[in-house]
Amino acid sequence: MSMTVPPDFTKLPPTKDVEKEYGLVTTRISAAEKMVDRSITAEMLSDFRNDFEEGKKYYSKLKGFGQVTFHNYSYIYIYINSLQYNGDMMVDNNKKVINITVATHKKNIDDRTRKIRKDDVVQDLKGLSGGERSYTTACFIMALWDTMEAPFRCMDEFDVFMDMVNRKLIMELLAKLATEQYSHNQFIFFTPQGIKELGEKDRVQVFDMPKLFTVAGVVAPGNFSRYELKWPGALRIVVQTITGDADIYFSYSNKLVSYELEHHDASSASCGLDYIDVSSKPRPVYLGIYGHPSKGESSYRLLVLAGRNGTDEFEHGPELIERWDELAEQLDEYHSIYDDMLFGILEIIFAILGELL
To answer: Is CATH 3.40.309.10 what the domain over 212-330 is classified as, yes or no?
Structure first.
């Protein structure tokens, strides 16, 4: 008769360690069971073929991205040369930067090869004038369009600092691209300047925003109502007092414009219609409407007019404010047009998203 030796419980591992080891063994067993049946069914083969075909489509798209630099270089070269400039574009993938250099004078360009001469000085964007930089940037954006697929494309204030020659040339290029090369896309261009240089174009609709801003306000006696104005070009600022006495104080740089001499650059403080004309200095500029302390609360109407086509000439005098109700109705009409246009674009976007989803 034999006797069983009882286990030594003092030598057993902790319960947590045992459970962890048990879990690892169970996982290995489950994985091994899944690998036992290696047969390939017709359904699996069909799924694999479909995945392969989808992968080829994505590969083709990704392969095209390798040509982005070449396409962009080609098109920016064409656009810049349309102004008899010459330029180079270099993409540094390591630093993730794009360097564009431009020769803006014919003496920097070899007449035979139309290439930048190595012994000539070329300039990057920082060395260009404001107009040259705006023109070059617009050319670069147009070059990017060749590798973009987007139903809507917008440019805002693309012609800032351009002279009349550059504006006419770039606007002709944009209109040609929008109506001929990319006629299936919707283009929206915003400019604070006139577009008389463009002339009439087929399939181009122009919405001329009113060159004015109106607001009615109230200011307590001895206080200011302040405004920040960002419109480019010269401005005519008109204030009509309804009750009390509202005066104008204007500054090119002081946000806290006030009646102290060192805190404003121009003012008009009459008992009737007040107005001032200010030049086209860098924006923003600052306006303060002051309520005279001896007149109690002052209510007023403020009208700001922009110069004609970015010049210092104005289509209307300060008496235009007398047609306040007519101006308000005109602005409401313009806002309605832009609202309709915006909602139309949104409807198209939602329709496209609905098809994709």
So the answer is: no
